[in-house]
Amino acid sequence: MWGVILAAVAVFLLATIRPGQPWDGDAELYIIDALSILHGGPYGAGGYVFNPDNPINPAAYPAGFPLLLLPLLMTFGLNYLAIKVALVLCFIGFLALLTRIARDRLDPVAVALLIAMLGFNPFVWHFKDVVFSEFPFLLLSYGALFLVDRIDRAGADGGTRWHGILGAAMMLAAACLVRAAGIAVIAAVAGLVLLRGRRLWRPGLAVLVLACVLILAVNHVFPADVGGYGATFDDWELSDLPSNLVDDALSYLQGFVGLLGGNHGGVPGGVVSAVWLVLAAIGMVQVARNRLSVFELFFGAYMALLVAYPMTEERMRYALPVLPLLLLYGLSGIAVAAASLDRWRGHGRAVAALFLLLTVALAFVYAPQFGRQPKGRNLSVEQSEARQLYDEVMCRVPADALIIATYPTVIALHTGRRATAAPEEAEAEDFWDFVADSGAGWLIRGRRPMEDDARPLMKVLRPRLQPVYRNALFVLYRIRPAVPDSAVPRLAAARLMAPDHPGASDPSPNNQR
Question: pLDDT band for position 40 (50/70/90)?
Fold first, then answer.
């Protein structure tokens, strides 16, 4: 049954991929990093200039995802559709792996329902239309967990083979290189080694050491900007730790409610999500009682990472890697609840009834969401206004100039010019100090509904901005040089005597008195 569901999910996702790429910026930096590898230049040297006062992206991502993109760029060029197809195939591969993991823990009907709940989740369906690294991360991280779990089950009785250890180490390293959040997988494996003790010491330690060697080797050749991730802790204070942890925990609880409800489930989705969280808690306790595995340790480590890391703007996206386990635990909780009904109704009938009720509830919540377009997804980096902007930038802006933009990675990739972000929540003085220090000479503003970091400052910035191009979505400005304070009186006098100034003398007869 699960094979039919898996095939249906694959056809559904592949057949409904939308063209274009929303304005996000992450994908473009991954592509910039991949192109730097392809062209043999310094890694990450593709035009994006990192601004530590607005660390929306690091200077260079870990090389895992750019290396995965490399064959696609070599074959298809910069083709967002080809990349999306490859990412959906990664997700289908992950679902196939998840069935193998779930078959040891759930009955066949529950396995099929697990695949359907994840594959037909509206959030996942919308998520596939943006180039992100989560789908490869799901495949690689769960692949590493699966192989480590097999090593754990084999024990230290000679059942563990070196090819299994090598495979687990390679998957673990690849997961960490695709997303820095892979550190949670390392923590889970290390925790399992400590938990099992001597029985898993040698193979577990071998996996961790080999993985770390591979990660260090790749980072040595393609150095990532690890410090960029730490920049989010610049305003972090120890005294705020308890309140921050509580706020982040509540924020991600809302994120899980959104994920389970498909992102826009409304009140019915919230009710279904709340019930599911209770079932998942019951199932998790039952699973941990039977046998605490590396999957439960990963769930705990990843949740701790989410709560501790001060970044909750995209909480559903960041919580996605543990959604499969949350669904698996919820299905286990249903089995536990059904077993308690065994005295007055047959266990099989109770499970079937609960599964049927769940299917109807999710269909009621999910179905209306497939016709909705998430906010901002109708604006693409490939639409005509964007292409017009790129052409104007390449025509008007010198090759060595620096542009300030809300999405600097997009501008850098599609124009070949250097681009950076303005300081976050800056005042006018801070903005002009940044211009002076960086040497930026151009500014790109987004007109509504495009996002624009400079919009709140435009009243005070406008005197030094010269518009040179505009269309329905964008304005390109040249930044005028600052006027020295000593020149202000001379300028005022010059303006006063200018022919078009109201107070200037006019030698024409009509002005004679």
Answer: confident
pLDDT of 506 above 80: no
Q: Max alpha carbon distance in the chain (Å)? A: 112
Quickly count: other Cβ atoms within 10 Å of residue 151's Cβ: 25
Return the closest-CA partner of residue 136 out of 220, 232, 70: 70
Tokens 């269309």 sit at which residue? 471
- Dump pLDDT digits (tens) for 213-257: 999 999 999 998 876 555 555 565 656 567 667 777 777 777 778
Amino acid at 268: P
Helices (H), 155-200: 162-178, 183-196
Q: What is the pLDDT of residues 104-141, one digit of tens each?
A: 888 888 898 899 989 999 899 999 999 999 999 999 99
Please give the single-letter amino acid code of residue 230: G
Amino acid (one-letter) located at 339 = A
Residues of the chain above pLDDT 90, percent: 50
d(C-alpha 228, C-alpha 303), whole Å: 21
Rounded Cα distance between 10 and 459, Å, is 51
Say how far residue 321 (Cα) sits from the centre of its chain: 11
Dihedral through CA 495, CA 500, CA 504, CA 508, nearest 10? Answer: 150
Distances (CA, A) of 112 to 94, 120, 150, 287: 14, 12, 22, 19
Tokens linked to 512: 């004679």
Query: The tokens of 353 are what?
Result: 């009834």
Edge-first strand order for the sheet with 402-404 is: 418-420, 402-404, 442-446, 474-479, 465-470
User: Could you tell me the two tokens for 459?
Assistant: 């009243």
DSSP letter string, 207-272: HHHHHHHHHHHHHHHS---HHHHHGGGTT--GGGHHHHHHHHHHHHHHHHHHHHTTS--HHHHHHH
pTM over 0.85: yes
Report how far residue 330's alpha carbon sits from residue 326's, in angstroms, rounded to the nearest whole number: 6
* pLDDT exceeds cutoff 60 at 209: yes
> What burial class does residue 289 get, using C-beta atoms within 10 Å of its C-beta: 0-12 exposed, 13-18 middle, 19+ buried?
exposed
| 158-167, 288-297, 298-307, 312-321: segment of lowest average pLDDT | 158-167
Which two tokens mark 84?
A: 């999306």
Q: Which residues pair with 245 in a beta bridge?
A: none
Band of residue 502 on the pLDDT scale cut at 50, 70, 90: very low
Cβ burial of 429 (10 Å; 0-12, 13-18, 19+) is: exposed
